[in-house]
Design goal:
By secondary structure, the chain is of the alpha/beta class. The protein has 3 domains: about 10-85, Orthogonal Bundle (Arc Repressor Mutant, subunit A); about 95-165 and about 270-305, Periplasmic binding protein-like II (D-Maltodextrin-Binding Protein, domain 2, 3-Layer(aba) Sandwich), CATH 3.40.190.10; about 165-270, Periplasmic binding protein-like II (D-Maltodextrin-Binding Protein, domain 2, 3-Layer(aba) Sandwich), CATH 3.40.190. Helix content is about 40%, strand content about 20%. The protein contains 10 helices and 13 strands. It has helices spanning about 10-20, 25-30, 35-50, 65-85, 105-120, 140, 175-180, 225-235, 245-255, 285-300, and strands at about 55, 60-65, 95-100, 125-130, 145-150, 160-170, 195, 205-210, 210-215, 225, 240-245, 260, 270-275. Helix 2 crosses helix 3 (about 35-50). The relative contact order is 0.15.
Amino acid sequence: MPRIEVNRSGEMEVFVQVFERGGFSAAARGMGMTPSAVSKLVSRLEARLGVQLVHRSTRKLQLTPEGQQFYERSVRVLADIDEAERSATADAAPRGRVSINTSVAVGMQVLVPLVPDFMREHPQVQLDIVLTDRVVDLMDERADIAIRWGPLPSSDLVARKLGETRLVIVGSPDYLARQGMPRKPQDLLKHQRLDFSYRRRVPDWPLRVGGQVVEVPVQGNVRAGDGETLRQLAVAGAGLVRLSRYQVQADIDAGRLLPVLEKHNPGDSAPLHAVYLGKAGRLPSRVRVVLDFLQARMAADPRFGLAA
């Protein structure tokens, strides 16, 4: 009986494109195929594997658990093939598109200023940057890397620590002149305490009194969904805010913000991580160079030294 040749890597590539582009038609346009050809290829793949990979509907394409597993492994296999081909050529420079998802504050204060240097070092890598303080699912958002500060929940994602920074309560000189400089933690109850509008792991402000840490509830007339907005509100004189040192160090240096109750600062810190799918040894070179670049630059950034 003649053996039927199957282009497995080609099937994987089409299947990956179907999911990442959000449908058969979009994948077909991107690969120069017809939608019916893409649909038939996926159907043949499902028949050969004996499992359903995709839930089809007119509104949304969704992977089955088996499809999710096949997608993740296909991405790794295709990355290995890509790496093998590049290493066999004279020009093995990383290339391709890398999607980065991070908070507004990290994006504006850390990531965006580094982009020009990265582009000069890796001109064949393109960056897609999405800024949001909403915690996203890398698979749903089709992001290669997410950068987040604070403790990480347990997950199947791989994390690389980029840095660590202390937290500090700050207010503008104008606001503190009007409302008075707090001298003890209880004084905060008389002040506007600007807060995040989403639920956080640590909702109160911890402060050290003697040998104990007390927590002051955060309560004010203004809340915001991201740290950058809260920083600007504090600079504008709307109240006090507790943020990571890297977010406000430039404002402190310029005198736009003043640290408050530093002798009661408990010294807690917030780590910054890059999280991504897959194992470090199987990352595409385009993703690996971004991670290596960020880690090296942030290791040299004094804002992420705990002595600040």
